[in-house]
Amino acid sequence: EFASKHGGAYYKEAMEKNKQYVVQPPSVEKCQELSKQLFYTRLAR
């Protein structure tokens, strides 16, 4: 319930904080690159 009430505000806040990491415009290549990075990061753990 908390998440549904505060999710929007939390999401906006998170997006503001992460603005410097967000690539504009998002591209397919960048998306695939980031998903690979995430995959290998998880694999390394």
Automatic annotation (TrEMBL):
<dbReference type="GO" id="GO:0015986">
    <property type="term" value="P:proton motive force-driven ATP synthesis"/>
</dbReference>
<dbReference type="InterPro" id="IPR006808">
    <property type="entry name" value="ATP_synth_F0_gsu_mt"/>
</dbReference>
<dbReference type="GO" id="GO:0031966">
    <property type="term" value="C:mitochondrial membrane"/>
</dbReference>
<dbReference type="Pfam" id="PF04718">
    <property type="entry name" value="ATP-synt_G"/>
</dbReference>
<dbReference type="GO" id="GO:0015078">
    <property type="term" value="F:proton transmembrane transporter activity"/>
</dbReference>
<keyword id="KW-0496">Mitochondrion</keyword>
<keyword id="KW-0066">ATP synthesis</keyword>
<keyword id="KW-0472">Membrane</keyword>
<keyword id="KW-0375">Hydrogen ion transport</keyword>
<comment type="similarity">
    <text>Belongs to the ATPase g subunit family.</text>
</comment>
<keyword id="KW-0406">Ion transport</keyword>
<keyword id="KW-0138">CF(0)</keyword>
<protein>
    <submittedName>
        <fullName>Uncharacterized protein</fullName>
    </submittedName>
</protein>
<dbReference type="GO" id="GO:0045259">
    <property type="term" value="C:proton-transporting ATP synthase complex"/>
</dbReference>
<keyword id="KW-0813">Transport</keyword>
